[in-house]
Amino acid sequence: MQSNIERKNKNTISRHRPIKVTTIGDGTVGKTCMLITYTTNEFPSEYVPTVFDNYGGTIYVDGQEYDMTLWDTAGQEDYERIRPLSYPNTDCFLICFSVNSRTSYENIANKWHPEIKYYCPNTPIVLKEILEIKKTRIQLLSKNAKE
């Protein structure tokens, strides 16, 4: 997949191992949408449940070039047994939750953090909230209408 975050000369070869970032979180919180939007600068037009997928590009940190792979995992319980197969060599986990779903937030402590600590106890974790603007806008409008 060609990515807009790939900002290097095609003849340049990265001297570093790719940085692997694995996203986890409840199903339908917006992980895939976030990754597609980040890598292509386009919002996906339809929802397609993810089993596993990955996206990539090149980033620069302090003038150093790094290849980055973004691993997208399925949050549904049906995939609990195979999801950890994507965890080896992860440099950072991105736990995603929806601000529109209290359950997805509670599952950080109940499910996702324990799962990461079991399989990759020393890997850093970043917490990322995802806001579904359309749904939130409708909720705010109906709340204001009631007041």
Question: Could you please describe the fold and organization of this structure?
Answer:
The chain has 147 residues and is of the alpha/beta class. It has a single domain, classed as 3-Layer(aba) Sandwich (Rossmann fold), CATH 3.40.50. The longest helix is centred in the C-terminal third of the chain and has 18 residues.
SSE blueprint:
Elements: E1 19-24, H1 31-40, E2 52-61, E3 64-73, E4 92-98, H2 102-119, E5 125-130, H3 133-146
Strand order of the largest sheet: 2-3-1-4-5
Question: Total number of β-strand segments?
Answer: 5
Q: Return the average pLDDT rounded to an integer.
A: 79
How much helicity do the residues have? 25-40%
The total tally of domains equals: 1
Query: For the CA atoms, what is the radius of gyration?
Result: 17 Å
Q: Enumerate the spans where pLDDT stays under 50 for 5 or more consecutive residues.
A: 1-14
The CATH C-level name is: Alpha Beta
The number of helical elements comes to: 3
CATH fold-level assignment: Rossmann fold
Measured by DSSP, the beta-strand proportion falls in 25-35%
- State the end-to-end CA separation: 48 Å
One letter per element, helices H and strands E, the order comes to: EHEEEHEH
Helix and strand content put the structural class at alpha/beta
CATH homologous superfamily caption: P-loop containing nucleotide triphosphate hydrolases
Gross geometry? globular
What characterizes the major β-sheet? 5 strands, mixed
Q: Under the CATH scheme, which architecture would be assigned?
A: 3-Layer(aba) Sandwich
Keywords: Cell membrane, GTP-binding, Lipoprotein, Membrane, Methylation, Nucleotide-binding, Prenylation
InterPro entries: P-loop_NTPase (IPR027417), Small_GTP-bd (IPR005225), Small_GTPase (IPR001806), Small_GTPase_Rho (IPR003578)
Family: Belongs to the small GTPase superfamily. Rho family.
GO cellular component, one term: plasma membrane
